[in-house]
Amino acid sequence: MTQIFGDFIEQPASQEYLIIGFSPSSVPLKQRWRNNGLSADFLADYLTTFFPGNQDDPSTIERQAEIKSAVSYIANELLENAMKFNDETSEYPIDIKLQLESDGVIFSVANSISPQAVDKFQADIQQLLASEPSELYIERLEKNAADDNCTNSGLGLLTMLTDYRAKLGWKFQTVHKDPEVIAVTTMVQLTV
Questions:
Q1: CA-CA distance, 115 to 96, in Å (whole number)?
Q2: Which residue has the higher pLDDT, 32 or 100?
Q3: Does the pLDDT of residue 168 top 90, yes or no?
Q4: Which end of the chain is more exposed for a tag (fewer CB within 10 A), N or C?
């Protein structure tokens, strides 16, 4: 089974890319929660080396800071989601790939998802894709404020759409039959 949602594109690797992988068998992934920010910052630092510019020009420094902030935010959100919703019964690794293109950056995060969670996740994706992002953002903020136990608000994805004008896509793929392991790859395309 392979299903595509949103702006997911299959494309060959560019000349410049970086992949960081997390093995579910070494340390429980949720114990690595604090490492998400460190990994995201590393990816952002790595990417900014490709935008050197003139270090005496304030606009160059400001542009680098904007790119670094966007990359760090998006990478952190994607890693947190991947680890939060990873199927802990699977040995499928989580990885994040940052790919530099001529007009932007493509993030791809792959993790396994419980087969029982697929339908709900796909319904959430379809609602996200069919809605006006800014209206859905406000609706979810209000819902979050009313429910202290809400852990699946989707605000990170909505922020990517509203604040960074990113394109989002997903691919669901059965990678093992018995026991069933379903991998979901979340792709974010960011113009820089």
A1: 21
A2: 100
A3: yes
A4: N
